[in-house]
Design brief:
Blueprint lengths: L13 E7 L7 E3 L11 E6 L9 E7 L16 E10 L6 E10 L10 E5 L6 E5 L8 E7 L9 E7 L10 E14 L5
Antiparallel strand pairs: 1-11, 2-5, 3-4, 4-11, 5-10, 6-9, 6-11, 7-8, 7-10
Length: 191
């Protein structure tokens, strides 16, 4: 019998810069600034209960509710949370965003679309979205977001996360905990 050995391709060396350790959650707000800041079925708060690193994480809690409410245009809404920077930041020298994510839920996460991260354009009119792949419930996992979306990475004005309630069943509860968000750049070429 002959054995075949396969070597994994070496991963590029990375240099990390802290973006948000979530030790102060006050910069993060719930709601869509364009349509609905109330978002009665979502909350954003600091958490000391589910933490990957440090003393606290950021919790984005979603309670899926398809019940129509007075003056509500879309019962199946888009709960979101966002952080707007005081001044645009230059991320043009970075290749990725890394962070830790824990999705606490009893819901079945049967599809690829569970949570998205986006970066609004400087004028705030558009957001480029990235669907976070492979989210598994009830465990910490490291998320890597490639900064390859077509936008001006020299003028990043904020970060937004959202879910669409239509991706879930009415009554589902999902708490997303985020921790240790970092920018990363390759220090060796990727092949």
């Amino acid at each position: 019998l002959a054995a075949t050995l396969c070597a994994a391709a070496p991963q590029p060396a990375l240099d990390f810069t802290k973006l948000d350790d979530f030790e102060d959650a006050s910069a993060w707000l719930k709601g869509d600034p364009k349509t609905d800041l109330e978002q009665k079925d979502a909350a954003v708060t600091a958490s000391t209960e589910t933490v990957h690193e440090g003393k606290q994480s950021l919790a984005f809690m979603v309670r899926v509710n398809w019940t129509p409410r007075p003056n509500e245009k879309y019962p199946k809404g888009w709960p979101m949370m966002s952080r707007k920077f005081d001044a645009p930041r230059d991320w043009s020298g970075y290749d990725y965003i890394y962070f830790w994510l824990y999705a606490r839920t009893e819901a079945k996460l049967l599809q690829e679309r569970v949570l998205r991260i986006g970066f609004p354009t400087p004028d705030g009119k558009e957001t480029e979205w990235y669907t976070i792949p492979g989210i598994e419930p009830n465990r910490w996992q490291e998320v890597v977001v490639p900064l390859t979306m077509p936008r001006d990475w020299a003028r990043v004005t904020g970060i937004t996360f959202y879910v669409a309630e239509a991706w879930y069943n009415d009554g589902d509860k999902v708490d997303f905990y985020l921790d240790d968000m970092r920018l990363a750049k390759r220090t060796t070429p990727a092949f």
